[in-house]
Amino acid sequence: MAVLRDDRMALRSVDDIIKARQLVRDGAIGQGLSLVDQTKLVTAVSEIARNTLVHGGGGDMRMEILNDGAQRGVRVTFSDQGPGIADIPLAMKDGYSTAGGLGLGLGGTKRLVNEFTIESEPGKGTKVTILRWR
Amino acid sequence: MERIPILKMGPYLLVTIQVDMHDRVAMTLQDELTEQIVRQHASGVLLDISSVNVVDSFIGRMIGNIAGISRVLDAETVVVGMRPAVAITLVELGMALPGIRTALNVDAGMALLKSARKISSNGRLAR
After folding, report:
1. Which of A15, A25, A43 has the CB atom closest to B56's CB atom?
2. What is the rounded CA–CA span in Å between residue B24 and residue B2?
3. Which domain holds residue A93?
4. Which residues of A touch B92 (CB under 8 A)?
5. Tens digit of each residue's pLDDT, chain A (134 residues)
6. For labelling alongside B4, which of A44, A73, A115, B123 has CA 20 to 30 A away?
7. Which residue of B lies nearest to A49 if distances are taken between CA atoms?
């Protein structure tokens, strides 16, 4: 798998969520994702970036533009050094929320992308990776 | 900070969201719209999101709040002009905006508000 572009940015404020959406939108357009797939990916980015900010106390986002043979995709990784998640399956359930949101952050976001991985441990922060192929 | 204009059109208020909405802008809109519904005696709110290319759960919740607050103030909210890609994404996300009226464009939204007023069965006189 070839990484054609590797961008990183900090997620420190709500303004950064908007910048993150714009960065990933550009990447998705560059990879030729359809409008629906761009919208799904960018919405997923908005959800996870907000989690990084609200629950993780801020963190970093990395966007990689990938080519795997004929497949073209965009992978986005979010990492924070926040309190972490003790029960990941519970956090992935639709309807689960600790921040008074709609509680469809993680479970709903997973449906918007082709690949979704989450690594987290209490006290050690959280890392979420999402990938959308064209 | 940018603000979203609220236009009065007869008994209705028209809000056209044209920016990639910042959280603070969304919260300000919610407050100002609530104030305007009361001040203008509005009976309906048309929320035009035809220029919005991302509706995440935060913005979805704001739309739900606006609809809920306006209903309590005896005004109906119609969300108009949702882009097809946004609609598909919202449903997959698990947020189909239950209880919120939608229309394809501002004209259809206004027709919906007019007919809703006529058949309203809440015992109040139509305004």
Report:
1. A43
2. 10
3. 2-133
4. 40, 108, 111-112
5. 899 999 999 999 999 999 999 999 999 999 999 999 999 999 999 999 999 999 999 999 999 999 999 899 999 999 999 999 888 888 887 766 555 444 456 888 999 999 999 999 999 999 999 999 99
6. A44
7. B56
